[in-house]
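Collaborator request log, item 7. Partner lab (contact: R.S.) asked for a structural prediction of HAT C-terminal dimerisation domain-containing protein to inform their binding assays.
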Amino acid sequence: PKEESGGLSFWPDTLQALQGLNRLASENSGDRSIDARGLVAQFDLQFIGLLVICNKVFGDARCLSEILQSPSLDLCSAVDLVQALVQSFQTYRDESYFEGLWREIVEPTSKRKTKQSRRLDGHTVMSSTGERSKQTMETFRTRIFYAVLDTMLSELNRRFAKPNCEIMLGIQALNPSSNTFCQEEALFAFASIYECNTDDLKHEVYQMKRILERKVKSGIQKPSSIVELTKIIEPFKEVFHELFRLCKIAIAILVSTASCERSFSTLKLIKTHLRSTMDDDRLSSLGILSVEHLDLVLKLQPSLFGNVIPSSEKLILQSPPNTHCEDDVCYCV
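Returned to partner:
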């Protein structure tokens, strides 16, 4: 299949692989068909159901994931996508929607006919022998499908709560390349969270707009990011005190609140590999290399140790003085 960017392409690729296995299992092509039948036999209703649900839920969340990871991040669009995604997940709780999803789940499994065991021939069977009961759909809907939706909704509401969305919209209002640049409603809501003086901020925003217009008319390029805007305001930070403070917060908050950064850190992967492969021999070898490296540095730069302990260069090893003891009194000779 055509390669797709992002880890979410895993789910449709897996569905295509399952469909290929079903086709291969229905053929008579020797060992390949036998292996395919063995794999298909391991797929139960719950496995395929979870696969279909993950494909649907994560597929809908893919647009939000991509825009949040985009270098040219538009926080206003991200907030709109979050609200739209929450509404979509809420509508998925409708029973009529799940009925269509259930047909999509049952379709791959219905092709595999369940055969009754020969050991049951001639016996009276009082329970199900492979035929799915009518309660399976209701159980799957309440225990699995709703649980996945509730988890996604809970995480979206937690990560994109009203204060967080106000901060995102406020940061976007400080971006000169945004359509909502200097929008008072978003900017003042952001300022109130950090207890800024909105009256002073209103006058500062008005004056800052006039300064930017004059700079553009004089041939200076308009700033395209919050960092460039902060550099322009910095010489006038005593005048634009509240605005300069908000710009500094907007620059720092995106980095300081990246809670998942460590999960994707390359340095973290390297350290994890080193820790998992560390044993006594490796640790001993690394210790020897470290000691020999330090010894080599001290030999090449003898003054380095003296810079750390200046008096060390004046230390001279001397033999102990001769002593003479008489009447329990010792004298140095």
